[in-house]
């Protein structure tokens, strides 16, 4: 396939320690010749996305992620108040700040002596998801929304799982884990991302395989989180997974909890392998089958438009109108699969055609149809055929 067909804005969802699987997933993306136009993430996914965005090699990120352990939580929080949490999160913030700044400044880096890296300083596009508990809404860190915000501090907010890390207080608002909004497609929460025309690949980390052992309070909380999260992910994939613009990869980590930070080295390596296998299988098997269906759908639309054009150019406007009706009958059944931009373009074209249509009647029935502004309709018809033809070629290649 052409590289452009494999270009995505990639979103890495949260999932605690299970985020180690993103190392394997990223390796599979590189093997599949995926070009990444931008990064987004929530919770542990935000950390992975940021490390990629500042330019770390995957081998470096793998080393960082394999070293994640209980040490990050040793700055115990004793001042609970209205912010009950095990850890202050200061050790984790210091670690993230060091990783971001040392890569950004390179050899000239002096720990604690450099200006903090802000979103506007980054070359790569980076969107960090978080949740504003005070105002009960999604909170975004990005070049467009928060150009002056420090990247490491945004990560600290996004990983603030309630009960684990203290929330981040920004102007009196408590900002926590971006994965609290996981019941929505993450791309849809961001005005920055939802407005983009490029394809979106969203990773979701789940643990929905098999029967769980619920022996402790922590097991119970994990089971509740996994059940809610799993239902949301399956619903979202069912709703959007077959659409042209969106691809979803669910990495099921099989009975590894979000907060299992004492995971053995061998288990961590298994997570890397799981991420690689699932992502690799998606690009080798699942995506080609999906694209085949998309191609058949777009090709059918292309045929309708070419038939329409023949009748239109022969000045058989009534026949052209009937073919347009057939096309929209087809779209009623297949709308969910095609790019929303293309669907809206088809709707606009039909409206324009209808607005320019004049009926010539006989005694009791419509005798013929004419167009008031045929040149305008013809211009937009040709543009639409060009768009559909390019899409058909893109999907097929």
Automatic annotation (TrEMBL):
The active site is at 43 (nucleophile), 177 (proton acceptor). Residues 10-190 form the PNPLA domain. It holds the Pfam family Patatin. Signal peptide: none annotated. It comes from the Bacteria. Gene3D superfamilies: Cytosolic phospholipase A2 catalytic domain. The keyword ATP-binding does not apply. One of its GO terms (biological process) is lipid catabolic process. A motif (GXGXXG) lies at residues 14-19. Keywords: Hydrolase, Lipid degradation, Lipid metabolism. GO terms for molecular function: hydrolase activity. A motif (GXSXG) lies at residues 41-45. This is Patatin-like phospholipase family protein. It comes from Candidatus Galligastranaerophilus intestinavium.
